[in-house]
Design brief:
about 180 residues; three-stranded antiparallel beta sheet; globular
């Protein structure tokens, strides 16, 4: 049965090569490359975004809307999975009150980020503190992607905060079991 299946595929491949030689020739001349931003999203070399949400269970119901599962809550604030530079996924708090994204020192070390600058920031209690910063090529949540984001690195934080620099072009709706990102 295995060999019969392979024979059938070979027949199809030969038929395609005989019937469509022009398309095969063009395929070699117009080769496309793409950058994979994780299992839920991809950007082609031309910059076109392609959602792969069905593969990871994050299915946008209509164009520009992405629903992301809430893993748990810290207090009443949602914690969601966030992927950095196609490499690593971390749980982060979706902080609608944070201007910028803040990552932990452990996250920065795991991602092998090097400090590129410093930023002064006012934290929730009004205190002004200074953080080292670094650039992250991609931050991805489901089908939502932000490119070239400068993140603050908090040496004493136990969990990162996903801020407005990531989701500023989206309206956010926090539901019981998921967060909805609706593109403006």
């Amino acid at each position: 049965m295995k060999n019969a299946g392979r024979g059938w595929m070979l027949t199809i491949n030969l038929t395609v090569m005989v019937v469509m030689p022009t398309l095969i020739f063009l395929a070699f001349w117009h080769r496309a490359t793409a950058e994979d931003l994780g299992t839920c999203f991809m950007v082609t070399s031309s910059g076109r975004s392609i959602s792969l949400g069905k593969l990871c269970g994050v299915t946008p119901p209509d164009s520009g809307v992405f629903r992301i599962p809430i893993k748990r809550r810290v207090g009443k604030t949602p914690v969601i999975d966030v992927t950095f530079n196609e490499q690593q996924t971390f749980e982060m708090i979706l902080d609608t009150g944070a201007s910028s994204t803040l990552i932990t020192l452990k996250m920065a070390n795991t991602l092998k980020l090097q400090p590129t600058g410093k930023v002064n920031a006012q934290i929730a209690d009004g205190t002004e503190v200074q953080f080292l910063t670094s650039k992250v090529k991609y931050i991805t949540v489901g089908g939502v992607v932000a490119n070239n984001i400068e993140v603050a690195i908090a040496p004493k934080a136990s969990i990162g905060l996903l801020g407005h620099d990531f989701f500023d072009n989206y309206d956010i709706k926090i539901l019981e079991k998921e967060v909805e990102f609706r593109q403006r």
